[in-house]
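Person: Show me a sequence?

Helper:
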Amino acid sequence: MQQSRFARVNSADESWTSWEAVTLNSPWSLSLIRQGIDRLVAGILAVLTLPVVVVCLAVSAVVFRASPLFVQQRVGLNGRLISVPKIRSLPTSVDSTADKYALRKDSYNGWSNLLRRSHLDELPQLWSVAKGDMSIVGPRPEMPSLSSRYPADFVKVRTSVRPGITGAWQISEALAGLIYEAPEYDREYVATASPRLDAWILWRTVRGIFGGDPINLTELKARTSG
């Protein structure tokens, strides 16, 4: 089953072609201005959301009877491993490297579902942005065990910018699956990153939290070409 899900990685699907043609490291993506804005905004949001984080940590500690905060290793800028903090949303018996398909085999309590659906478990990542390891908007940081199985060109493109808390793939209809199943979202973002695109992604992120529809690739391309 695991092998079949990775079949597309080595396929001739057009989504995996022409990765070398993607313009890497656009002026906006790695600019000092953007990094400064990211770190400032993330620092402010981290302080403002601290009460929410504390409450979530307390509830997770009681529900799961384990350390409510844990850190995962993810692939960051230029392939460097970074530490990504998260609020515990699953029992300690669950493999921390399990993908979405593996997690769907089991049912979890209401607290787990609330944290994961609302993405409240990712609020501590604001500190990773303030530290400079991540951006607010960018490709989702991938687990090393999965990233090592992707085509080299795909990994090079995704890691040519800092990973983000939210991003084109994260707010898309492809979120129900895995990153490698819809690589075209990250490809489009890296190739066309701009302040206006980031602002639109942030707007759609907020809209999605309150029940808005996810984006599709046609919408993304219309936004980047407009």
Observations:
- The chain has eleven helices and four strands.
- Residues 1-13 have pLDDT under 50 and may be disordered.
